[in-house]
Amino acid sequence: MNGLLNFIRRLGATAVEGVWRIGFAARFFVLLLRHSGQSLTRIHLTVREIYFSGVLSLLIIMVSGLFVGMVLGLQGYETLQRYGSGDALGVLVSLSLTRELGPVVAGLLFASRAGLAVTAEIGLMKTTEQLDAMDMMAVNPIARVVAPRFWGGVISMPLLAALFSAMGVLGGWLIGVVFIGVDNGAFWSQMQAAVDFRFDIMNGVIKSFVFGATVALIAVFEGYDCTPTAEGLSRAITRTVVTSALAILALDFVLTSLMFRGQS
Amino acid sequence: MRRTTLDLWVGFFVIIGMAALIFLAFKVGNLGASNGGETYVVNGQFDNIGGLKVRAPVKSAGVVVGRVKEIRFDPKTYRAVVSLSLDASYQFPRDTIATILTSGLLGEQYVGLEPGGDEAMLQTGDALQITQSAVVLEKLIGQFMFDKAAEGSAPAN
């Protein structure tokens, strides 16, 4: 009896904690937006963060994109060949990359490459009381530290996802056309006939934008909210990666069902 | 790191990101190929559109001249009304025939336009007078079987 009561009590505490955190995250987001002015007027703060989250992620994004495209080319050709439509390889590679894989995989990589670093940085600042020190000097830590990192992520992510898709298409082309010997003209022309700029590519860009904002928000929030101990910091970093991955995959399902359902 | 170096790298990043987007738009996607530009819309009534979908190509002599804009059902005539948005640089006579065709045996369906000989050209909102419905494979097979059966029983009478 006592054990059951304890279990229910613990469940209640977890639920209350969860709701409290969501509410805190929402208030934090509003606060972040209200203090974003400085990250635009002092643009070099944001530029610095674009360097750290965007430029330094370039290599991993481009190499992963190339390999994902190459694997798609190999596997896709294998299957399409059975139905005698190996020429449609370009369509398969480009549609799966621009619609789904580009934004999602780039988002996951971005979360583990850049989001994690942001959480660690802000968390360590909090642990070593740098954020409090800023507050004492009448420098708002949200405007000075958090907002530029958020906007840096939001701006970097769509560019990285576009690069990922472009490299993937090149990877698919490399395997399909150069190594396997699919006709070069058929590869590109069927791709261009099937991929619509507004429908496929812009929806992919919108997706990557949403994922970028989600990952950046989760990263800065977990860093700002972490328990200021070594253990709390490590937990916050873990939570950033796990929550970002889950949020990206769940949001991707929602966005896909809104954008592509019932059309072609 | 010095601020100018930082700016240089970020500028480089933005440029190759934009280049990737432009590559996707023009090389992978169909932007720049008869997508933008002026169009005009004509309607056609079909008995049966088969599997025609919105955004399917409209072709004349095999060249894409437009897209299917909208498909709806007319409750008065019990026929399907298909709106075609055609490229304004291609003008067609008033008595053009619209046919729903299939590319290949199992390919996607598209609308084929067969130009007539009228002097006047189609304008926005005009209706195509002569249309030909999609060939429904099941109907064709059914008809064929019916004919065969009728053939078989004919000598008995």
Topology:
The complex is a heterodimer of chains A (about 260) and B (about 160).
Chain A: H1 2-34, H2 37-41, H3 43-53, H4 58-82, H5 89-127, H6 130-136, H7 141-180, H8 184-194, H9 197-225, H10 230-260
Chain B: H1 3-28, E1 39-46, E2 57-60, E3 63-74, E4 79-87, E5 97-102, E6 109-114, E7 127-128, E8 130-132, H2 137-153
Parallel strand pairs in B: 1-7, 2-6, 5-8
Antiparallel strand pairs in B: 1-4, 2-3, 3-4, 5-6
Strand order of the largest sheet of chain B: 7-1-4-3-2-6-5-8
Per DSSP E runs of 2 or more residues, the count of β-strands of chain A stands at 0
Q: Taking all residues together, what is the mean pLDDT of chain B?
A: 84
Strand content of chain B: 25-35%
SSE succession of chain A: HHHHHHHHHH
Shape of chain B, please? elongated
Alpha plus pi helix count of chain B:
2
> What is the SS-derived class of chain B?
alpha/beta
What's the alpha carbon Rg of chain A, rounded to whole Å? 22 Å
Helix content of chain A: over 70%
- Seen as an oligomer or otherwise, the chain set is heterodimer
Cα gyration radius of chain B (Å): 24 Å
CATH-assigned fold name of the largest domain in chain B: Elongation Factor Tu (Ef-tu), domain 3
Largest beta sheet of chain B, briefly? 8 strands, mixed
CATH architecture of the largest domain in chain B: Beta Barrel
Give, in order, the helices and strands of chain B: HEEEEEEEEH
In total, the number of strands of chain B is 8
Would you mind describing this structure in some detail?
The complex is a heterodimer of chains A (264) and B (157). In chain A, helix 4 (58-82) runs antiparallel to helix 5. With 264 residues, chain A is an all-alpha fold. Chain A starts with a helix and ends with a helix. The radius of gyration of chain A is 22 Å and the shape is globular. The model of chain A has no long low-confidence stretch (mean pLDDT 91). The longest helix of chain A has 40 residues, at 141-180. Helices cover 88% and strands 0% of the residues of chain A. Chain A has one domain. Chain B has two helices and eight strands; from the N terminus they run H-E-E-E-E-E-E-E-E-H. Chain B has two domains: 1-33; 39-137, Beta Barrel (Elongation Factor Tu (Ef-tu), domain 3). Chain B is elongated, with a radius of gyration of 24 Å. The longest helix of chain B has 26 residues, at 3-28. In chain B, a hairpin with a 6-residue loop joins strand 5 and strand 6 (109-114). Chain B is of the alpha/beta class. The model of chain B has no long low-confidence stretch (mean pLDDT 84). Helix content of chain B is 27%, strand content 32%. The termini of chain B are far apart. Chain B has helices at 3-28, 137-153; strands at residues 39-46, 57-60, 63-74, 79-87, 97-102, 109-114, 127-128, 130-132. An eight-stranded mixed β-sheet of chain B has the order 7-1-4-3-2-6-5-8, with no helix packed on it. The chains are: A mainly alpha (264), B alpha/beta (157). At the A-B interface, helix 3, helix 7, helix 8 and helix 9 of A face helix 1 of B.
